[in-house]
Amino acid sequence: MIDILQQRRQKLTELINTPIILWSGKAISRNFKANLYPFRASSHFLYFTGLALENAAILLENGTLTLFIDDPSPDDTLWHGETPTRESIAKQIGADYAYPLAELTNYTAHAATIAVQDPTTYQQQLNRLNRPLYPNNTPETIDLQLINAIITLRLTHDELALTEIRKAIKVAIEAHKMGMRATKTAQTEAEIRGAMEGVIIAQNMTCAYNSIVTVHGEILHNQDYTHNLNPGDLLLADVGAETPLGWASDITRTWPITGQFSPTQRDIYDIVLSAHDRCIEAMKPGVEYRDIHLLACLTIAEGLVNLGILQGNPLDLVEKDAHALFFPHGIGHLLGLDVHDMEDLGDLAGYEAGRTRSDRFGLGYLRLDRPLKSGMIVTIEPGFYQVPAILNNPDFCHKYQGIINWDKLAQFSDVRGIRIEDDVLVTDTGIEVLTADLPTSPDAIETLCQS
Amino acid sequence: MIDILQQRRQKLTELINTPIILWSGKAISRNFKANLYPFRASSHFLYFTGLALENAAILLENGTLTLFIDDPSPDDTLWHGETPTRESIAKQIGADYAYPLAELTNYTAHAATIAVQDPTTYQQQLNRLNRPLYPNNTPETIDLQLINAIITLRLTHDELALTEIRKAIKVAIEAHKMGMRATKTAQTEAEIRGAMEGVIIAQNMTCAYNSIVTVHGEILHNQDYTHNLNPGDLLLADVGAETPLGWASDITRTWPITGQFSPTQRDIYDIVLSAHDRCIEAMKPGVEYRDIHLLACLTIAEGLVNLGILQGNPLDLVEKDAHALFFPHGIGHLLGLDVHDMEDLGDLAGYEAGRTRSDRFGLGYLRLDRPLKSGMIVTIEPGFYQVPAILNNPDFCHKYQGIINWDKLAQFSDVRGIRIEDDVLVTDTGIEVLTADLPTSPDAIETLCQS
Question: Does B191 contact A209 at a Cβ distance shorter than 8 Å?
Answer without folding.
Answer: no
